[in-house]
């Protein structure tokens, strides 16, 4: 990423020096700003991030497969853990160049101008940075370029360990919550998520602290508990507590600003509902089933595609008479990309109570569990009487709290493929009532010799070995010495 930026800068400089006298004045567009504003750069970053975690490659063929929400209708390679290296490289580059670098530029503009409210605007960008690094470190198993990643003078940034990244993220969120000041101006335009609402960004930052803390709690319980206490301290601005406070990136009805998965489905149907997901929804007559999935054409029957089967006549090839396809809940033009929502927060509160952390919460684990299920269902448009009936079928089981919370959190995270996969890895949940496995092995086996059930991480892009070889090799030492999808994330203790 650094080399690409250096080369681009060199080409631009060379082009500028080659101009004839006076050409630069002729080449100016009087109707276009000469420099992007910080608001425009924030919009770009939020858009690029949302596109990166929602598109057909990183969500469809990666997250939605690994969480087993979807199966492949044509080519099963990715669902059997054989990645396309070019798409992996694009995902990595997008996070660094098109998200983090845009945010950095936005902050530099604010720091230089220091217009009223600049501290708020810098803090918002810093929170989005933390959210981006959170995805990067978890996707790639821990070690990533972090502390030196955005230094334009350093084309070979060191990799920080996952533990170091998490400590940095929690410190950043702690600091930015203190910086944010609702009495000062903020973004008037450019903030797609919260329209510059400083209090909303405080709630988001605190809710993100909960996610980060719970993800590492099995290996760093003291640090995680301290972060949870800070996130829940009312003096720090609170957490997401209503659906309206959820962080949603809202797409528009028409290209190029419609949901990227919607655009993908206009070309071909590469994804169907997965059999493990459909079967589990059917097991307890989940009223979200018809919201998430289409019945087979001209029937009232919901059928999931076998997960990880090789391309053959057994695959549906996207035929809606053979298999259930996703509804507009996931692939509609305006289906939002969920960054962090009420349902997830409620399940996190349930887990905090299930772990008996004594952080000042007054509700019970069972109460927060029920509120998490209800929040998910209300977001899906389910009627209250149906929510009540469903909760009677899947009561909270304190003795199997990981299974109760994990299974329902997984359902609620449908469309959030990457986070659904990471929670699958962290909680290792089964059905709390029957004790049976929810997930299936790839029907025709894994194509990665290091992976049997599910990938534990994404491999680093191969170009890192040549562009940043010394630091890359140091990072691999933390992962067992090889760039393997079978290497567990540092927080994945069980």
Automatic annotation (TrEMBL):
InterPro entries: SusD-like_2, TPR-like_helical_dom_sf
Cross-referenced Pfam families: SusD-like_2 (PF12771)
Stored PROSITE patterns: PROKAR_LIPOPROTEIN
Protein name: Lipoprotein
Keywords: Signal
Signal sequence residues: 1-18
Key word Endoplasmic reticulum present: no
Coiled-coil residue spans: none
């Amino acid at each position: 990423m650094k080399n690409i930026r250096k080369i681009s800068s060199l080409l631009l400089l060379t082009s500028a020096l080659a101009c004839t006298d006076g050409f630069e004045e002729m080449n100016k567009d009087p109707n276009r700003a000469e420099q992007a504003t910080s608001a425009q750069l924030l919009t770009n970053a939020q858009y690029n991030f949302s596109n990166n975690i929602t598109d057909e490659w990183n969500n469809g063929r990666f997250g939605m497969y690994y969480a087993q929400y979807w199966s492949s209708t044509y080519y099963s390679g990715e669902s059997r853990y054989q990645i396309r290296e070019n798409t992996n490289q694009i995902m990595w580059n997008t996070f660094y160049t098109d998200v983090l670098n845009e945010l950095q530029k936005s902050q530099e503009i604010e720091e230089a101008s220091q217009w009223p409210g600049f501290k708020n605007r810098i803090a918002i960008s810093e929170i989005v940075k933390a959210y981006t690094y959170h995805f990067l470190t978890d996707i790639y198993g821990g070690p990533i370029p972090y502390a030196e990643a955005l230094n334009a003078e350093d084309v070979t940034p060191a990799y920080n360990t996952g533990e170091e990244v998490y400590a940095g993220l929690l410190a950043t969120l702690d600091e930015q919550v203190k910086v944010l000041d609702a009495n000062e101006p903020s973004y008037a335009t450019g903030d797609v998520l919260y329209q510059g609402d400083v209090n909303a960004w405080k709630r988001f930052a605190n809710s993100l602290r909960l996610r980060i803390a719970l993800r590492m709690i099995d290996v760093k319980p003291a640090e995680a508990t301290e972060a949870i206490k800070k996130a829940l301290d009312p003096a720090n601005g609170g957490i997401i507590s209503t659906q309206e406070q959820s962080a949603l990136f809202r797409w528009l009805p028409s290209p190029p600003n419609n949901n990227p998965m919607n655009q993908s489905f206009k070309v071909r149907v590469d994804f169907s509902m997965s059999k493990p997901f459909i079967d589990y929804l059917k097991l307890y007559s989940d009223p979200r089933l018809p919201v998430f999935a289409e019945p087979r054409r001209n029937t009232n029957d919901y059928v999931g595609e076998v997960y990880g089967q090789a391309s053959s006549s057994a695959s549906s090839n996207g035929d809606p008479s053979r298999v259930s396809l996703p509804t507009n809940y996931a692939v509609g033009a305006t289906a939002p990309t969920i960054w962090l929502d009420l349902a997830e927060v409620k399940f996190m509160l349930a887990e905090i109570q299930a772990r008996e952390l004594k952080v000042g919460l007054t509700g019970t684990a069972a109460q927060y569990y029920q509120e998490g299920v209800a929040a998910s269902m209300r977001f899906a448009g389910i009627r209250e009487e149906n929510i009540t009936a469903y909760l009677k079928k899947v009561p909270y089981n304190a003795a199997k709290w990981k299974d109760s919370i994990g299974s329902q959190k997984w359902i609620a995270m449908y469309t959030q493929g990457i986070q659904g996969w990471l929670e699958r890895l962290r909680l290792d949940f089964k059905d709390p009532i029957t004790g049976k496995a929810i997930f299936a092995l790839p029907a025709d086996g894994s194509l990665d010799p290091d992976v049997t059930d599910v990938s534990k991480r994404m491999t680093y892009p191969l170009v890192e070995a040549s562009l940043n070889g010394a630091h890359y090799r140091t990072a691999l030492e933390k992962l067992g010495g090889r760039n393997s999808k079978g290497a567990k994330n540092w927080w994945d203790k069980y």
